[in-house]
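User: Before I run my own analysis I want an independent prediction to cross-check against. Here's the chain; please return only the structure tokens and, at the end, one sentence I can use as a sanity check.
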Amino acid sequence: MTAPAGPILEVRGAVKAFDGLLAVAGASFDVERGSITALIGPNGAGKTTMFDLLSGFGRPDAGTIRLAGRDIAGMAPYRIANLGLVRTFQLTRVLAGMSVMDNMLLAARNQPGEHLAALILSPGRSRAAEAAARESAIGLLATFGLAAKAGDYAGALSGGQRKLLEIARALMTGPSIVLLDEPMAGVNPTLGRDILDHIAALRSARGTTFLFVEHDMDVVMTRADKVIVMAQGRVIATGTPAGIRADPAVVEAYLGTPHAVAP
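Assistant: Structure tokens:
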């Protein structure tokens, strides 16, 4: 089956202000299907606010946001997730008092056992759906090296393992695009490389699109297909990692000077 043409995510003229201060000031960009795209910029550039607007945790004051051709600006987060866009957070969010497996199963979609009538009238269908969800969860946990932790409380995981769990849980929804907010933050380099390898493998195997915010420029330059640069709420550059590295506007935004980037 041929994938639909055109970008999976389109942002045009997005604006968001807080008490008169523009956090996002008319930003526009596209994210191509099946890409690994980085969204970078200095602190205060508006990156996290943009993620909030894309995922429904914030409502734009103006502009359009389209997911696979559908306007999602201002939609509730659960509705956007049902359309295929999910996100992780810079500060990892897991249900610490539940097991790793239960964290995963909560993210499974279209479970008939969640409805009392279906549970009573079609118990076999509910059991089959639960078994399928559990099998999918085990597969994802194995992919992220967490299979041995399935029965442990999520709160007992290390910070890096929680980051892995959050990404795996997001993938349980079967998304078409995943937003990752600083996936390398607080993660040791070895585990960080594992995360990046898993992301690349999932893109290849499933065609999943990834848009990530990251401050580690080595990660951005070696792992992203495309880089979007924000500064002062606007997109100031878009291009390949090599092109972005040499862009004078990007150098000035990061360093406050128009000098060229050192080799």
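Sanity check: The chain has two domains: 9-94+173-255, 98-156.
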